Amino acid sequence: MAISIGIAKKDREAVAKNLSKLLADTYSLYLKTHSFHWNVTGPQFNSLHAMFETQYNELWLAADEVAERIRTLDVFAPGSYSQFGKLTSIKEEAGVPEWKDMVGQLVEGHEVAAATARETIKVADKAGDEGTADMVTGRLKEHEKTAWMLRSLLR
Fold first, then answer.
1. CATH class, range 15-152
2. C-alpha–C-alpha distance, residues 63 and 47, integer Å
3. 3-state DSSP percent of the chain in helix, strand and coil, to 5
4. Residues 26, 49, 47, 42: is their CA dihedral positive or negative?
5. DSSP class of residue 73?
6. pTM of the model as a whole
7. What region, left, alpha or beta, does residue 3 occupy, with left being phi > 0 and alpha being psi -120 to 50 degrees?
8. What is the DSSP track for 77-93?
9. Ferritin/DPS domain location, by residue (predicted)?
10. In whole angstroms, how far apart are CA 89 and each of 37, 70, 116, 130?
11. DSSP summary character for residue 2
């Protein structure tokens, strides 16, 4: 059955393209945060280990929400490492940095995801897609808040 939600196909595809970038950023940030959770050491171990766990769990749920929104727009969501690698703006970390660098990289990652979310909201607004704009506004706020909380550890 054809989709008829009041948004033209080309507009749904444009929104989904931006959502796919947000999904890739979210999933890449999830992987980085989970890796840091496993590998953090130092005097802040206990608090960072717990904080990273809370953050990667939130990102896991967010990835599902973003992917399901793409599908709601009747577009297939990316779902492979290679697709995410092409779409994300999050820098990969192949090693195990010190805890301060971990925190700094996560601040940067959340700020990148916030910028991607902000751009996605603009495209959604232009398409008259209030559902996507609302969902992504929540994501934007979460990325900004998490970046602030992480940044406070470095002062």
1. mainly alpha
2. 24
3. 75, 0, 25
4. negative
5. T
6. 0.96
7. beta
8. PP-SHHHHHHH--SPP-
9. 17-154
10. 21, 19, 9, 25
11. -
